[in-house]
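Appendix B, record 7
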Amino acid sequence: MSSELPARRRPGGPRSVPLRASDNVAYDDILSVLGRQLGEAVPTADPRGRRKLKGVTFEYGDDPRAVHDMAGNTGYSLASNWFTQLLAQLAVANSITKSQLCVFLFVAGGQVPGTGIAQYTQQEITDGLNKLAVQKNGKKITRSTVNRAIKALCEYNWVEKAGNGAIQLNVRLWFQGNSTAQREVLATITSEHGDDPSAFPHNIGPEPHQEEFDFGQAAYTREKRIG
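Structure tokens (predicted):
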């Protein structure tokens, strides 16, 4: 009789179980089903019998994040809620002229996506604003009025001239593009103005001491004097 004890199994350790022929058949069936679902023929588990995958068709459902359904085909912009309310307040208080408001809204709606720049000459702004007026025989705006409005908007720091035929919007007020593009444009503008917090486009906002929008009455007085 041998004195050697049988090797002890490690408690809880895996045991090697030999596969039966019926198991191989089952695995072959599973592989065949998966292969057919992916467009791949797998008749057996032998890799030499497989065919190359020619193509897979995917169907996508609606993205739950795509919630915007906007009128028109020119996209849409994001605006500061504070600023849009301010526009309404200034209009009611006659602290901004109709021409200034119209010119700003037309320029803001014509931004090149991701830049904050509207590529318009003063004549193009004039013609664009008069498009419906021509059709309806209504009152039209003049180029000289558009010129005065742009000068006033630059003083308000809502816009800035960006060369011939280009106007830079204050992207902290109104911007067409995602947040990454907005930060990049904002950083570029800030750098071009020497990182001065009192310069365009940072010296405007709902500051506690500026709730009445200080330049509003001054703008109204100036327009009355010009008119």
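Remarks on this record: DSSP finds eight helices and six strands in the chain. The chain has a mean pLDDT of 78.
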